[in-house]
Structures are given as C-alpha cells and as structure tokens.
Amino acid sequence: MGFGFCPLLEVPHSVLVSLVKDIGADRDIDYELELGLTIDLPVIGNFTIPLSTKGEIKLPSISDIF
C-alpha cells in the first residue's frame, strides 16, 4: 500500500488568459475543483471516490485593504 502525490501543475495559456479577463471584469475568480480519492482495498482493489466543488473567490480592492 502506498500513497502518491504529484505536486506538478500544468496550466494551459488559454486558461491563464481567461482568468485574467475574468478578474478584470468582476474582481473575482471562479473556480471548479475535481479530485479523485483512490483507496487500495484488499479484496476489491483500487476504489476511487470522486470529490468536486466550485465557487468564487472575491478579490479585495485597494480601498478594502487601506
């Protein structure tokens, strides 16, 4: 039984451009996160539980900080 984690994250250029446009339009970042939790069960084998969430992160403006 082992645990694996790969911290490498590749983001396509088009996603970055879309992110910048979204931040400029409404000062928030819309996100959707989809993960799969894989458990190695002795009799069944690998069993994956899908996990997902989505929402938005509001970015503070300069006047909110000062």
UniProtKB/TrEMBL annotation:
This is Water stress and hypersensitive response domain-containing protein. Coiled coil: none annotated. InterPro entries: Lea14-like. GO terms for cellular component: cytosol. SUPFAM superfamilies: LEA14-like.
